[in-house]
Amino acid sequence: MFSAVKKVFSQKTAVSEKDLKKIISVLEVRLVKRKKNILDAGDEPDFMYFLNKGLFRAYTYDFKGDEQTTDLITENNWFGDFKSFITGRKATLYLEALEDSQVLLLSTKNIRRFCDEIPKFERALRQTIEFYFVKSIDQAKKISYAGCPAQERYREFSRKNPMLEKRIPAHHLASYLGVKPETLSRLKHSEIQYTKTRQ
């Protein structure tokens, strides 16, 4: 059950086996059903999450009250409301399971304790936060008016995530790409025609 999280830690920084056991010992296992949220805006930032199995999305509401999918989280990744964690303020994101999922929870209390006790843990945490910070900036640029055209955004997503697309409901993928569901349908059709012309 903990092999994936151990591997992620070993890839990011050389946490000792003794310290790794200490971290694993406090992880809470939670099963989250499809369409259920593990975090809602307004919640206290009590945990960071590691997705052991399944698929999640992060979303917010825009000024019109429409959902905006801001991130898609796949297996073997840490996730959460990093802004809330850093500031200590209440969550601004919703985190919803798109599939029945198994999540490992690490409390913010233990995170802060390990940052004091395990220097290499703090380094791994900083790398994770930096990764999501850069990812969020890139995503915002792509969706902005001055960013990538919608067709290019869809093409890039399909190229990088050929199997993931089939697991995501179309309306959530459209929201993530910053387009309407009917636009996504046209993009898919155009991409099929584009692929045929290149064969």
Helix content: 40-55%
**Class from helix and strand fractions:** alpha+beta
Please compute the radius of gyration using only Cα atoms.
18 Å
Instruction: Please name the CATH topology of the largest domain.
Output: Jelly Rolls
Shape: globular
The description of the largest β-sheet is: 4 strands, antiparallel
Contiguous uncertain segments of 5+ residues: none
Instruction: State the helix count.
Output: 8
The averaged pLDDT comes out at 87
Layout of secondary structure:
Blueprint: H1 3-12, H2 17-25, E1 28-32, E2 37-39, E3 47-53, E4 56-61, E5 67-73, E6 77-79, H3 82-87, E7 94-97, E8 101-107, H4 108-117, H5 119-143, H6 150-160, H7 170-177, H8 181-197
Antiparallel strand pairs: 1-8, 2-7, 3-6, 3-8, 4-5, 4-7
Helix pairs in contact: 4-5, 6-8, 7-8
What would your notes on this structure say?
The chain is of the alpha+beta class and 199 residues long. It folds into two domains: 3-146, Jelly Rolls (Sandwich); 148-199. 48% of the residues lie in helices and 21% in strands. The chain has eight helices and eight strands, in the order ααββββββαββααααα. Strands 1-8-3-6 form a four-stranded antiparallel β-sheet. A four-stranded antiparallel β-sheet has the order 2-7-4-5. A hairpin with a 5-residue loop joins β4 and β5 (67-73). The radius of gyration is 18 Å and the shape is globular. The relative contact order is 0.16. The model has no long low-confidence stretch (mean pLDDT 87).
